[in-house]
Specification:
With about 375 residues, the chain is of the alpha+beta class. It is built from 13 helices and 8 strands. Helix 2 links the parallel strand 2 and strand 3. The longest helix is centred in the middle third of the chain and has 17 residues.
Length: about 375
């Protein structure tokens, strides 16, 4: 078969998903791994080998730690390995291009996405050189030790945190680089007995049952869907009054708002800012807290909600200095990052399981 050019993130993602679904085993060489790798792998159960650049702070070592816990998965490291190759044995397919293992690189839609491209190689003979290349790469790569992960986590936290939720000094110039967020749990930290017991309780929970909005396409949002959202929010909050105005919002505007909220290629802070302030995106009846719940019901593994229960949990276990005092778009982005770090430290499957910790403690 002739190679097929994949000109955008959604095309690459689709090719990878199709190859994964038909594979008997998988080999990935990806420079950087994002916290949302599970979104790409989905429900795939095929054995997986991954080589990544662990010592780069562009790789999320907490995500690597969780990836290593996936059943049938082995992960190695190679410094300055910058390849992006997805090899699917059994499907006789290899995707070779520029996209790392993250949702920002492999977006379902191409709105505000990164510029990515790849080539899909198909057929046993054409894929054979890729198989040989990966075999040599795997044999040359280094095993990841616990100390490697610990060092990478400290480096990543230093690069992405700054030690706490310090606000910029008044009058300080704004950086044009990526905004730093704080998730720095000290390396010497150990969970209390109570927190460890809670983690043991929630570790095996299936969050899929909480995904009441999973698979909902914004363009197909209906009046019945809106009623479901309002009814679920009302049940969660114990009252309906604050959410009812959403039912009167025109469907076209509601669809735009939902499309903006679920557009995972954009940073969550940017999405929530639009929902909070932008005229075309802002809708009556749904404040930031409500939107964090909508996101949670859509993807409970990635979007733990932030509310009064969260604050009680943080106060009880001494996490308040790492979390925002009030819910803002930036504060919610920090909470997600903290939940991802905490989930890795407690050996939980996803950041969403931290919400189950919160629920179990405060129920």
């Amino acid at each position: 078969m002739k190679p097929l050019f994949l000109p955008k993130p959604s095309a690459i993602r689709s090719a990878i998903r199709d190859a994964i679904a038909r594979a008997s085993k998988l080999d990935f060489a990806v420079a950087f791994v994002g916290y949302d790798w599970q979104d790409i792998l989905g429900s795939a159960r095929a054995p997986l080998r991954v080589v990544c650049w662990l010592t780069s702070t562009n790789t999320n070592p907490f995500a690597v730690r969780q990836l290593m816990r996936r059943l049938g998965t082995r992960v190695k490291q190679m410094d300055r390995m910058h390849a992006k190759v997805y090899l699917a044995h059994g499907a006789n397919a290899a995707i070779v291009g520029s996209a790392n293992l993250s949702v920002s690189a492999l977006a379902e839609n191409d709105i505000a996405g990164q510029g990515e491209a790849a080539v899909l190689v198909r057929g046993k003979n054409d894929v054979a050189p890729v198989v040989t290349w990966f075999r040599d790469l795997w044999n040359s790569a280094r095993i990841i030790k616990g100390t490697d992960l610990n060092n990478a986590e400290r480096a990543w936290q230093a690069a992405h945190a700054g030690g706490g939720f310090r606000q910029p000094r008044r009058g300080a110039s704004k950086s044009s680089g990526p905004r730093q967020t704080a998730a720095a749990i000290p390396a010497a930290w150990r969970p209390s007995r109570t927190l460890q017991e809670l983690a043991d309780t929630v570790r095996g929970m299936d969050l899929g049952r909480l995904a009441g909005l999973k698979g909902l396409a914004p363009a197909k949002l209906s009046v019945s869907h809106k009623r479901l959202i309002v009814d679920t929010l009302s049940k969660w909050a114990g009252h309906a009054g604050a959410f009812r105005p959403f039912l009167a919002v025109p469907l076209s505007q509601s669809r735009r708002a939902l499309e903006g909220a679920l557009n995972s290629v954009r940073p969550i802070e940017e999405r929530l800012k639009d929902l909070q302030t932008h005229g075309r995106s802002k809708v009556a009846g749904l404040d930031l807290t409500a939107w964090t719940m909508v996101l949670y019901w859509w993807r409970p593994d990635l979007y733990p909600p932030f509310n009064t229960r969260t604050k009680r949990f943080a106060q009880a276990f001494g996490f308040q200095k790492f979390l925002p005092r009030s819910l803002t778009p930036r504060g919610y982005a920090r909470w997600i990052q903290f939940a991802q770090v905490l989930s890795a430290r407690l050996q939980l499957p996803t950041a969403g399981h931290v919400d189950r910790l919160v629920w179990e403690y405060t129920k």
